[in-house]
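Ticket #4471: structure output looks truncated?

Reporter: J.K.
Steps to reproduce: submitted the chain below (322 residues) through the standard prediction queue, then opened the result file.
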Amino acid sequence: MRRIAALLFAVFAAFPAAAEDVYPGHPITLITPYPPGGATDFLARTLAEGMRTELGQTVIVQNVGGAGGTVGSLQAARAKPDGYTLLLHHIGMSTIPALYKKLAFDPLAAYEFIGVFAEAPMMILARRDFAPRNFAELVAYARANGEKFTVASAGMGSVTHLCAMLFQEALGMPLTVVQYKGGGPAVIDVRSGQVDIICDLPTTNSGAIRSGDLKAYVLTAPQRMATLPDVPTAAEVGMPSLAIGVWFGLYAPRGTPKPVIDTLNKALREIMADKAVGAQLEKIETYLLPLDQATPEAHRRKLASQIELWRPIIEKAGIQAE
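Returned output as attached by the reporter:
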């Protein structure tokens, strides 16, 4: 009887371990290193719903903002590498190595890469009664006013800041970048005339552009947008170097097992193939990328090349945070 009891105990004790070996066996946390309400948060929630369908588990979005996205990114990097903590980050992952002197993690070494899957263009915007009528006049105005010409930024290292630096680089002259604590206050001051322009995602500004409250000068995408067809691209206005796409990638902590990464990558690709998801993202002027970018290898290459792209631009601008 003692032998039978011991055998039964061993059999039943093995069940939880076996169940836990099936990934995912419980809810997943998806960290986004920015506050709620922005494009990254919307994308995270759309992705979480798609993953819930594909993986059969709840995916909980956790907003961990602060320090240009580095707080949430570090939390994800230090999480247990079991596939139950993931990170959604955008192009900012490629700029933080140059922006921060004492970065506590190496973006290329701290994570396993799952895939790049979406991208959003940006637009240079101004108040409705700003004097320049088109992009050529805007460039002439900037050159005539020099450092008196002001560009709003949603914060150090934000996508608005990156685009401002790229515009400054394309002009070949310094501009005055005014830092704000978030995109909302920055756009308010642009609309009121406190600051001349902002380079921002059309996501939260398309309504104001259509109503005429904001004037759009140029789009940083290769092609015009169907929703705002009158806005020319950077190439069309003769400034092809002003091309910045805010790309989004999915990460897991370094050491996450390959079978788990493979499962997550498969789910990501299934989500990208869903036309309903594509239509959902188009509502915020964000677009799914080709499937060949949604691989761990392509994701790593993308991040490495973008780090090298942005480093000299940031160093030339002399911008670095502690």
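Triage note (M.O.): checked the attachment and the full token line is present. The CA atoms of residues 146 and 175 lie 6 Å apart.
Status: closed, working as intended.
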